[in-house]
Design brief:
Oligomer: single chain
Helix content: 40-55%
Radius of gyration: 19 Å
Shape: globular
Number of strands: 8
Structural class: alpha/beta
Strand order of the largest sheet: 1-2-3-4-5-6-7-8
């Protein structure tokens, strides 16, 4: 029976990959993005591949990111003006720092400054040259300070001055979210930048709780109830919106109540919504339609082959485990 099971699993991966991943290559993804781009959606492409295990993995992922920069730049065309308004209209790229080094761990901070920072800077310089936005993706809570120590030198790099496209993702389920906003606010003021911040709720909830239990920590680094995360998200959103000179807020959510609350809190301020490819289409259609909410929305679009899909798909499935979830509704012919 093994060949039958193996074939069934391959087919399941193809179905899930087609639902949650825009394309197996960046060229395929850009072709598939055309229809939604015509509807007014913006894109942030994520070249799947995380937690590089070897130096060869990291080099391969870095090369894939640079290939993506060239392809996205060609697809977007030359910018009409190299200003911030034009920058936020253009497609971007999301990068996971764990994809660029096989030892992405706080114990190796000194080594990472020597070995990871140069390729990250090269990628940022390429994005600046193409006038495209770059987002540093969030990872586990124990790597937050490590990621900030690697991003901070980019904010102060003279070669990246005048380009407000360097941003990062912030997880509202983390209990340090508001102090992180304050730190970024101080950094923006000190460097004269306006920082794009993608506010998400968080994808590693189960793992963070288990790791904290295994470590015998006095408390959890994340909120353990969804309602607390929802409240923390709105608190962070309110704080970001109150500092328009320092932040360009990007609200990643598939929750209708959260979208409605943001629309009221933001009034006429400059911001955008974001959604994952393959999720929230019906809800965000009402976000972008001029006769409805009429606000910009960017699609976070993963790109990669089936070999690189597993970690991403597991996170999507964990996020969608509830009976009301997209995955369960997909299987319901009456929904």
């Amino acid at each position: 029976g093994e060949p039958v099971i193996r074939q069934a699993l391959r087919q399941a991966m193809r179905i899930l990959g087609g639902q949650f991943v825009l394309g197996q290559t960046i060229d395929e993804a850009l072709a598939n993005a055309e229809d939604e781009a015509e509807e007014g959606y913006r894109f942030s492409f994520d070249m799947l591949g995380e937690a590089a295990r070897t130096a060869d993995d990291a080099e391969r992922y870095a090369a894939r990111y640079h290939e993506a920069v060239e392809a996205i730049a060609a697809w977007a065309g030359s910018p009409d003006m190299r200003d911030e308004q034009e920058l936020h209209l253009r497609p971007g790229l999301s990068v996971k720092l764990s994809a660029l080094h096989p030892r992405y761990h706080p114990a190796h901070e000194g080594r990472l400054r020597d070995e990871l920072l140069p390729p990250l800077r090269d990628l940022a310089l390429a994005m600046r040259e193409a006038w495209l936005p770059l987002t540093i993706d969030a990872e586990e809570q124990d790597k937050l300070e490590l990621s900030l120590s690697l991003v901070e030198p980019l904010f102060t790099d003279p070669a990246l001055a005048g380009w407000n496209g360097l941003g990062l993702a912030m997880q509202a389920y983390g209990k340090r979210t508001l102090p992180l906003v304050d730190w970024l606010s101080q950094t923006a003021t000190a460097t004269g930048r306006r920082i794009p911040v993608r506010l998400v709720k968080g994808a590693y909830w189960d793992s963070e709780i288990k790791w904290a239990q295994e470590g015998g920590l006095a408390g959890y680094p994340v909120f353990t109830r969804k309602v607390d995360t929802d409240v923390a998200y709105l608190a962070a959103a309110r704080t970001l919106l109150a500092r328009p000179d320092q932040f360009f807020p990007q609200f990643a959510t598939h929750n209708a109540h959260t979208i409605a609350a943001i629309a009221v809190l933001a009034e006429d301020r400059d911001y955008e919504f974001q959604r994952l490819y393959g999720m929230g289409e019906a809800l965000h259609r009402e976000v972008v339609r001029p006769e409805a909410l009429g606000k910009p929305c960017r699609i976070y679009a993963p790109v990669g082959g089936h070999k690189d899909l597993r970690a991403y798909l597991v996170r999507r499935l964990l996020e969608n485990g509830a009976n009301t979830s997209f995955v369960n509704r997909l299987a319901d012919d009456e929904a």
